[in-house]
Design a protein that fits this description.
140 residues; alpha/beta; six-stranded mixed sheet; two-stranded parallel ribbon; 8 strands
């Protein structure tokens, strides 16, 4: 088994400070994994934050597929036509979730952002197992 990629708040912040972020109108976080990085980015960019609730995997490590394709689990009713969007998720393995979210945001200019994996903007390269600084918050 490969050693997990352990992302800390300091190395997340360092990489984010060096990232080339686009000029956007709003941030759309893919819930649930994209909620925390999406909130950080919305705050940093001083832009509104919306969420799109998609689900493909069960909770926990290692991730287990729950659905064969990303499934919308809550309605997305916001009007975003003509907007420049930063679409945020925690990681992209196959790109299926980002692709499904794009379908839900027609007539927009989308830049994708992930903490780990392949996207327009990515802080860390693809890795088999990732532990985010917000992953272990059961004690709260």
């Amino acid at each position: 088994m490969r050693t997990p990629l352990r992302i800390t708040w300091p190395n997340f912040a360092k990489r984010l400070s060096k990232a080339a972020l686009p000029d956007v109108d709003l941030v759309v976080a893919i819930a649930r994994g994209g909620l925390i990085p999406g909130a950080v980015l919305a705050s940093k960019l001083e832009k509104p934050l919306l969420t799109v609730w998609l689900r493909m995997y069960e909770d926990g490590l290692a991730p287990v597929k729950k659905f064969s394709a990303p499934r919308l689990v809550a309605p997305f009713g916001a009007s975003v036509a003509g907007k420049r969007i930063l679409l945020v998720d925690d990681l992209a393995r196959s790109g299926a979730t980002l692709s499904r979210a794009r379908q839900l945001l027609p007539e927009t200019k989308i830049t994708t952002f992930v903490v780990v994996g392949k996207a327009d903007v990515s802080l860390f390269p693809q890795h088999a197992c990732v532990i985010f600084p917000w992953s272990n918050m059961q004690h709260l």
